[in-house]
Amino acid sequence: MKGVCSLLSSNEEIHRLVNAIALKNASEHSGSTNVNTVLSRILSLKPELKKEIKTLIEEIKVVVDSVNKLDLEQQIKYLDSTYSKDNLLDPKSRHEHVDSHPLPELEVSESQVVTRFPPEPNGYPHIGHAKAVIIDEEYARVYNGKLILRFDDTNPMNEKLEYYDAIRNDLEWLGVKPDIIKNTSDDIKILHELGKKITTNGYAYVCTCEINNIRTMRMQQVECPCRSNFDNSEYNQERLDKLFDGTYHQNEAIIRFRGNMQDKNTVMRDPTLFRIIEAPHPLLGQKVTVWPTYDFAAPVEDSLDGVTHALRTKEYELRNALYQDILDRLELRKPKVVEFSRLEFENMPVSKRKIKKLIDDGMIEGWDDPRLLTLSALRRRGFDPKAIRSFVLSLGLTLAETKPPFKTLESINRKIIDPITIRLFFVKDPIMLFVQDGKDTKVKLNNHPTSSLGTREVEVSNVIYISRDDAVALTKDEHVRLMELYNVKINEIDLENKKIITASYLNNEIIKDMKKIQWVSEKNMTKYKIIIPKEIYQNDRFNPESLEKIEGYAESSILQLKSRTPVQFVRFGFCITEEKFTAIFIHR
Ligand SMILES: [Zn+2]
User: Fold this and answer.
1) How far is the CA of 256 from the centre of ligand 1 (A)?
2) For residue 300, how far is its CA from the centre of ligand 1 (angstroms)?
3) Fewer Cβ atoms within 10 A, N terminus or C terminus of the chain?
4) How confident is the model at residue 400 (pLDDT cuts 50, 70, 90)?
């Protein structure tokens, strides 16, 4: 059949184009597409293919079949890679699209790749954690390896059971499935043994200096007396015993790594490996008081857990030398450290310290305040976990410290939720529109223009409400269409006194270019409030106007929706129902 080999089968570009169109169409329509839609779209882009229509249809059939077998998440993922690489589809819509940076290959020498995500249970996880754990998981899956979720719980002062739970729940919501879940505190005995070993072997020492002196001596690059007595192993051993038997109390003694006080990298100037913390630990209570720092626990745990690739954000860069040195001194296997950049957004803090302060000061409601970027806030605000995953993967493993626009995440989310979200009318700051000769009627409205999301029946009298924004733009004698209802002619506008507009019924034809506005009927409406979260910081200060509340009328059928249902208010934006008469704005 070689002779039939056409322009199409030999043309990789056409194949990719068919794929891209099918994926795009499917991702916009609840995950399914069909031959006719793809055909008409491709012919509009490449009319010359009409000559080969039979072969083209065969090709499309195969592609449509395989695309429909994917789930929505996969479709979006593939679309993101095909679409941006080729820039095949409408180039105008490119600004809506995220450039995709596929994850670079790992250097693999072990039989199985093992990654880990090590959050400290000292707050709620945010979108930066999502980036880390999704990349960790993606690598584990790609290489058919394992992902470990390890709670790095070695500072009882800041840790709470509530945070372990929050991290577990939010990762589950994200769709992350760790193969192993453990706590660093599970291994406290081993960590103590290794702490003693590194000290007795002469690579660390017990320091009983006052904390401010330690700081000053670090800056002045001076060794403290405890280190100078270091060669006296009996002296050192005695102090080590006192540290572990409870003779010393909090702030009275620490174990310090024997680094180099002259090192330009201040991390290496005898950093702390263990300290005494007497606050009860959320899991172990007061049984343990000697706790390793993250600097000691992270490399040791990574090594013992069999981690092959330790992915860390770039702010740990200066700590990498210490990470390697500790493992060298303990003669433990060294995982490869892979760095990536932290995910940050303009004017939206993710720092736990900042968020805790805002909560304590009563500026925000809690960890799930819709202005925050914690995962619980994003969930409450109507973001689909698939959008977060797709967004994070689109950023890839770049090291550049860039702040991607939040709009990119919104646009990915919009693509996912639009085909499954019903549309209703909402009018902000309602103004009455009195249709003088309007008769009582019922109209059936579609809940979505293209997806099959059902219909609703709306009773209409001659009293209708429109939003003030639309009302002020009207002029006398203007013809406008009340969307999906009928056309009216504006007679009188009195927004100052009676706050009313009078109009008369015109006809029900669809007339091209006629202004269209949304409305609600007096017979079918409810008071409704929408909360709009905005950037929480402005010029590094809390923005007191970061939570706008607007009121208006919505179609009363909104009251039948369950809490936490997304809805698109036409010409207004996507919202998610919260309480009975309130929704939170997601994005336009
Ligand atoms: Zn000292």
Assistant:
1) 9
2) 24
3) N
4) low
Q: Which of 387, 388, 377 is nearest to 418 (CA)?
A: 387
Strand partners, 206: 255
The pocket of ion ligand 1, defined by CB under 5 A, consists of 207, 209, 224, 226
| Token pair of 149 as six digits | 């979720």
Q: Please state, in angstroms and rounded to a whole number, the distance separating the CA atoms of residues 463 and 484.
A: 16
226 Cα–ligand 1 center, Å: 4
31: left (phi over 0), alpha (psi -120 to 50) or beta: left
Ligand 1 centroid, distance to 533 Cα (angstroms): 50
CA of 169 to the centre of ligand 1 (A): 43
pLDDT of residue 231: 66
Distance 199 CA to ligand 1 centre (A): 14
| 92 — pLDDT class (breaks 50, 70, 90) | very low
CA of 255 to the centre of ligand 1 (A): 9
User: What HEC string does 294-338 produce?
Assistant: HHHHHHHHHHHCCCCEEEEEHHHHHHHHHHHHHHHHCCCCCCEEE
- Is there a contact between 376 and 365 (Cβ–Cβ < 8 Å)? no
Confidence of residue 301 (pLDDT cuts 50, 70, 90): very high
Give 80 Cα–ligand 1 centroid separation in angstroms.
56
CA 270 to ligand 1 centroid distance, Å: 10
Give distance in angstroms: CA of 210 to centre of ligand 1: 8
Model pLDDT, residue 101:
52
Tokens linked to 249: 């109390």
Encoding tokens for residue 281? 């630990």
Cα 260 to middle of ligand 1, angstroms: 14
Bridge partners (DSSP) of residue 490 are 503
Instruction: Read off the pTM.
Output: 0.81
Q: Are 140 and 133 in contact (CB under 8 A)?
A: no
